[in-house]
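Quick illustration for those who missed Monday's session on complexes.
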Amino acid sequence: MADQLLSTTPHHDTLPENYVRPESERPRLLEVVTDSNIPVINLSSSDKSLIISQIANACENYGFFQVVNHGITEEMLRKVMGIGMEFFRLSPEEKAKLYSDDPAKKMRLSTSFNVKKETVHNWRDYLRLHCYPLEDFVPDWPSKPELFKEIMSTYCTQVRQLGFRLFGYISESLGLEEDYIEKVLGKQEQHMAVNYYPQCPEPELTYGLPAHTDPNALTILLQDQQVTGLQVLKEGKWIAVDPVPWALTINIGDQLQALSNGRYRSVWHRAVVNSNKERMSIASFLCPCNSALICPPKKLTEHSPAIYRSYTYDEYYKKFWSRNLDQEHCLELFKTNSGEQN
Ligand code: OGA
Ligand code: NI
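Prediction with N-oxalylglycine bound:
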């Protein structure tokens, strides 16, 4: 059963069968490249054009980068990680009250990815929160641990500011007006996933999160400082994204790939688990508003026709959650030549 939180079940000596991937889908951890050179971008540089060109390079060639001197203090990030961990240490009874496997719920504690759709489960529990506008959602957030609402809502506000700043750089790096992306995405939603990956008896056989791309516009990930686990696919190889101290890891989501007419890439990434330490990560997802119409600007289709048909984010998001996570890139279903008509 995966309808049970991993963080409340007793220790396992072997991996339960319904978490075991078939041989051809296993992570092959020994083949992972560990000396990665995922770009690290200093956001306090006074040379804005340097930041923009670094971002362009990172988005085109990696789809991932880390930012340092991003304006969110180490003290804040420590508090956020601390309160996240405290949350997963709450009693089983307390956590059971929040459990749901319905992706439509705006606040839920769940496990794996999409329990009802998937055949093999993932070694992860996660708390998913909607975060914007805060006053609409915070009242329903967990009331324990005591400081949870306060710390997480402060963090959400700061992450949003950072995200909008990055949208400005990304717009400019595509030769667009600074506020272009922010405008197109509309009154954006913001979601958060507090991911908890317990120690796993057989990490070679399963995933915390299998390969996927993020369906939103931009993801800002706060990674565990001690335990690595995030890997991204580049030229057919999985590379580890080891956290730079108190950096935030940024990745392009499917919507920016579509908006940039395929120039910037929403790359496959995954989280692996390990046998000696639990790991936590906190992902903040900036999403278009549901009615936002996603299509590339004229400027980016002058020399190459639109790769994807236009669609609303609402349509995209429904399609994303109707699938299993590690199928084909969800954007493939929106290609102008995909043959899919609806
Ligand atoms: C995600 C994600 C990676 C990680 O939540 O979408 O990719 O390291 N997380 O937890
Ligand atoms: Ni992801």
